Q: What sequence folds into this?
């Protein structure tokens, strides 16, 4: 009898996940008349998928149990918010969640059981270039950036996939024999050049956020692995110069910077998005206005890039801080997984994935609260978007597989 | 109806925040416990070869008192009990001040009950005044605490 | 070695996340209110629809702004356009309507927690320190001329009148109709000159120069004034190049001699003059009910010629009319400047006082002795000097005139800014005023002193 009460303890995070799922979707049921049963189905599906996957991981000792637990809370909060905004989008996100979990398992199995992944360096490179070219040639322009490909009526962003390939490429390099000379260049210079090529291609597609993400990830991995301080410093200086020139010359960058510093002067047009985001955050107070009681609909892109602002409006600053803490714990676990591994491919992949998650979160949250200029990237696991969700779960699956491999040591 | 929803949502927002933070703290707590457990198992691995030890079988966090996961059997005579001067001192109310004694003689480990109120159990059976020889893999229970004997 | 770097990265990540959390907290604690009240924030509209906005009264209860079903009404139109401001769904809010928006909507923390009552919420009513009769008179006496009038109670800091011209009708319909003109007009009617306009104070600055002279012991000299003086290569002339012969500092003050005060200015030096001005509030900001410009005394030191110009309130000195009213009230109040304030109290619909403002000391500019001497000089200025236009039978008025050169007056005659500052009664001051006419020409004594006189008379003879 005692042990059953222990199972229901509030100290067990999984119970809290269940509780919030039940209460939040239960509340949303009453949000509008007529009462919306679909919301209950959505909640139930999320709960089922999360609990089942968590149990599979936990009871089969498939590696770190915290990664998925944290992510499922993030996904739940995201879907709650999306259902509140528009339940049809909530349904779609559940669909993507299902697909993502499949992706998660597939990535786990592939990464765990297939060896020699570190030898596929040029495959990763080739695939990335292929995707870039495909996007440039066949891509559709949606929302001002030509970075979507349409396959069978569904849009997806190849740049998300390239993120993973980039990490794998860098990991192959850093864990391999770095003394190779290719095209008469030491490989480390080649890697820099390739990174800049990637960034250039992204810039052509106007993907500022992902460009920033790529560069920072490359820089951090280089800091961790590269013994050549000169190369590191050289890269930093070069980028600083290019960015400053870009900021002064390129209209797009200038606009973003002025809009960051003073969105109020063009509040009706360029500054509209960020100022509406700030109004929403200002309206929330510490505990928020309450689910369904705010006005997040005034923010453009509130389903994707600005979902954090909607969370701050309805769940308050405490809600926003909680989300940030969840990402922080995720990053902590990822780094811990990497730390105990011996030097090698896995270690680097784990680092790359974790760092990307962390930086991506910082960049988008910082952007919507106006700490740094706004860039168009998603909040992983929370924002609406199939490409983002699926690739995030694939990355998570790889991280999970690495944690499982490490635990056997 | 809209007003009922407003009241519900305004109240629930505090509950939601509480739940999310309980979730976060629950995870942090679990992580800490894991760290402690791995430190314990490191300690276990640091014992000199050939030393026996008692390994905690019961779940540590099911007790209100502190108890270690591993007690090395480093002396020839070891007293288990609630008293502070016992070699293995455990603040379990179901344990007597001097509950049981383990000693090493002729290459064997013996266990004897020291007249405890609630008794000492070896492999599920309550001991009488006769001391017993312990084998590797035996399970002893003193008070509420169960140990695996590894020697 | 690599692992150590990884740990460093973890630390960096932690700092990044901490910064996010810190900024969010800072946002909530410091930035939120200003941001929330932006007119583009649709959330406020809904809240405001549900609230009867509080009324605004002068000190005796005259209604200056009120709300009913048809909207926000300003019975006195343009008279309070620069004090109360406007409350427009299109153009947002200004002045007191902006600063005290929270109070007018009854939106403090307590009422926020439970907002479930039925029917319309009532905001808080504001009672100002303004004396409507005085405000009216000041506005009508300025007439169609551009300038400002500020009247303070030197003992408490209450703002009795605050008029800026040109003004405009803040009632919604008029405002929307005339907005384009208001924005584009060269006369800048939307500029609240009394608090934000910056002008060279001219001879009214001699109050500060003579304070310095007294403190430094330069007040005893004898001067030979034939209408001009040359210092450091520059020549300064008296008003209309009038000559006064052999005079001391006191007489120089009464007739507003540039000869005397250029000499004193050069003797004291720009650094000393800056120090004293800053004691009076130049180069400083304080928390006022309306936004203000900071009055400036140049930060860079100058040579003798420069200091001479500073001594007579020219050079690069710029003062707001309210700053000069504060300088005057220092003399009236034994050297102490009380903090000016407009909001006396906020009350809820049941008359319960939510907030009551109390007089506060702001700056200690001079010792009572020095203030007393300046006070005497100002009394004599009205009795025997340039301030005769402010004489009132039976009341001792203390005053100082000022005529200031500006960027237009150096090219064209008759464009000087003219000032008159005064307080009364000199032995127990109840009111301090500053009157300024922009680009007006003429003299402070002729044009501004009579306005000050009427205001003082009206206020004291109640």
A:
């Amino acid at each position: 009898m005692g042990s059953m009460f222990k199972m229901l303890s509030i100290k067990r995070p999984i119970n809290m996940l269940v509780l919030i799922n039940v209460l939040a979707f239960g509340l949303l049921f009453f949000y509008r008349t007529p009462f919306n049963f679909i919301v209950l189905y959505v909640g139930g599906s999320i709960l089922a998928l999360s609990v089942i996957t968590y149990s599979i991981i936990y009871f089969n000792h498939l590696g770190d149990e915290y990664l998925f637990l944290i992510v499922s809370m993030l996904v739940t909060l995201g879907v709650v918010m999306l259902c509140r905004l528009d339940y049809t989008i909530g349904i779609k996100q559940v669909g993507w969640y299902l697909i993502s979990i499949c992706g998660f398992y597939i990535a786990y199995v592939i990464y765990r059981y297939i060896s020699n992944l570190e030898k596929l360096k040029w495959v990763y490179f080739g695939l990335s270039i292929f995707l870039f070219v495909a996007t440039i040639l066949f891509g559709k322009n949606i929302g001002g950036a030509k970075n979507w490909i349409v396959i069978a009526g569904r849009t997806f962003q190849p740049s998300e996939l390239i993120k993973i390939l980039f990490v794998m490429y860098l990991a192959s390099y850093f864990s391999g024999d770095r003394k190779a000379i290719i095209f008469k260049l030491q490989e480390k210079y080649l890697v820099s050049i390739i990174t800049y090529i990637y960034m250039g291609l992204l810039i052509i597609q106007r993907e500022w956020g992902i460009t920033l993400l790529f560069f920072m990830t490359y820089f951090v991995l280089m800091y961790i692995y590269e013994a050549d301080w000169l190369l590191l410093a050289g890269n930093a200086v070069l980028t600083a110069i290019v960015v400053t020139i870009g900021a002064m010359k390129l209209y797009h960058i200038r606009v973003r910077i002025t809009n960051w510093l003073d969105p109020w002067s063009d509040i009706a047009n360029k500054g509209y998005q960020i100022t509406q985001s700030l109004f929403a955050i200002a309206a929330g107070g510490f505990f928020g206005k309450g689910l369904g009681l705010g006005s997040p609909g005034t923010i453009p892109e509130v389903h994707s890039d600005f979902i954090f602002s909607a969370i701050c409006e309805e769940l308050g600053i405490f809600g926003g801080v909680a989300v940030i803490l969840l990402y922080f714990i995720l990053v902590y676990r990822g780094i811990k997984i990497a730390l105990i591994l011996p030097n090698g491919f896995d270690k680097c992949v784990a680092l790359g994935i974790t760092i990307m998650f962390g930086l991506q979160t910082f960049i988008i949250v910082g952007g919507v609260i106006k700490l740094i200029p706004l860039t168009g990237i998603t909040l992983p696991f929370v924002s609406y978007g199939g490409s983002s969700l699926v690739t995030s779960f694939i990355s998570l699956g790889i991280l999970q597989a690495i944690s499982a491999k490490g635990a056997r040591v | 109806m809209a007003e009922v929803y407003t009241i519900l949502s305004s109240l629930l927002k505090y509950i939601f925040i509480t739940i999310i933070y309980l979730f976060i703290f629950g995870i942090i707590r679990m992580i800490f416990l894991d760290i402690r457990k791995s430190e314990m198992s490191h300690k276990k691995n640091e014992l000199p070869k050939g030393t026996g030890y008692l390994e905690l079988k019961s779940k540590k966090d099911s007790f209100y008192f502190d108890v270690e996961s591993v007690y090395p059997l480093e002396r020839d005579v070891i007293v288990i009990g609630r008293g502070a001067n016992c070699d293995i001192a455990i603040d379990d109310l179901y344990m007597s001040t001097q509950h049981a004694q383990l000693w090493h003689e002729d290459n064997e480990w013996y266990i004897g009950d020291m007249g405890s109120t609630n008794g000492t159990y070896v492999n599920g059976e309550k001991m009488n005044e006769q001391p017993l020889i312990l084998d590797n893999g035996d399970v002893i229970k003193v008070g509420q605490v169960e140990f695996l004997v590894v020697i | 070695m690599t692992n150590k770097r990884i740990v460093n990265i973890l630390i960096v990540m932690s700092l990044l996340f901490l910064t996010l959390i810190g900024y969010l907290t800072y946002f909530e604690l410091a930035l939120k209110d200003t941001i929330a009240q932006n007119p583009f924030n649709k959330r406020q509209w809904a809240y405001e629809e549900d609230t009867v906005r509080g009324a605004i009264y002068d000190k005796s209860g005259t209604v200056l702004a009120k709300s009913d079903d048809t909207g926000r009404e300003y019975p006195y139109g343009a008279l309070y356009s620069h004090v109360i401001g406007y409350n427009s769904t299109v153009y947002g809010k200004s002045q007191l309507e902006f600063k005290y928006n929270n109070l007018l909507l009854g939106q403090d923390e307590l009422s926020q927690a439970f907002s479930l009552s039925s029917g319309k919420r009532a905001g808080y009513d504001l009672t100002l320190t303004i004396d409507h009769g005085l405000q009216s008179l000041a506005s009508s006496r300025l007439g169609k001329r551009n300038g400002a009038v500020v009247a303070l109670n030197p003992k408490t800091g209450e703002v009795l009148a605050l008029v800026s011209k040109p003004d405009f009708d803040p009632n919604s319909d008029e405002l929307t109709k005339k907005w384009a003109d208001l924005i584009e007009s060269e006369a800048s009617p939307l500029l609240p000159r009394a608090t934000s306009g910056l002008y060279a104070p001219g001879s009214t600055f001699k109050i500060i120069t003579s304070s310095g002279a007294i403190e430094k012991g330069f007040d005893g000299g004898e001067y030979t004034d034939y209408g001009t003086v040359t210092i450091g290569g520059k020549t300064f002339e008296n008003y209309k190049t009038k000559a006064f012969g052999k005079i001391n500092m006191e007489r120089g003050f009464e007739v507003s001699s540039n000869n005397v005060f250029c000499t004193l200015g050069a003797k004291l030096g720009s650094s000393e003059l800056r120090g004293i001005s800053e004691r009076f509030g130049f180069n400083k900001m304080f928390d006022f009910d309306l936004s203000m410009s900071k009055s400036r005394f140049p930060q860079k030191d100058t040579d003798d010629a420069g200091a001479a110009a500073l001594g007579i309130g020219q050079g690069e000195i710029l003062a707001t009319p309210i700053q000069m009213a504060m300088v005057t009230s220092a003399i009236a109040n034994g050297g102490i400047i009380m903090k000016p304030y407009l909001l006396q109290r906020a009350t809820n619909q049941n008359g319960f006082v939510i907030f009551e403002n109390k007089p506060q000391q702001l700056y200690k500019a001079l010792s009572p002795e020095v203030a007393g001497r300046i006070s005497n000089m100002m009394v004599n200025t009205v009795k025997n000097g340039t301030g005769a236009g402010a004489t009132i039978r039976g009341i001792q008025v203390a005053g100082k005139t000022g005529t200031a050169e500006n960027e237009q007056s150096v090219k064209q005659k008759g464009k000087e800014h003219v000032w008159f500052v005064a307080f009364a009664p000199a032995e127990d001051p109840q009111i301090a005023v500053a009157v300024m006419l922009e680009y007006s020409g003429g003299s402070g004594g002729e044009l501004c002193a009579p306005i000050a006189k009427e205001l003082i008379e009206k206020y004291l003879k109640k």
DSSP finds 15 helices and five strands in chain A.
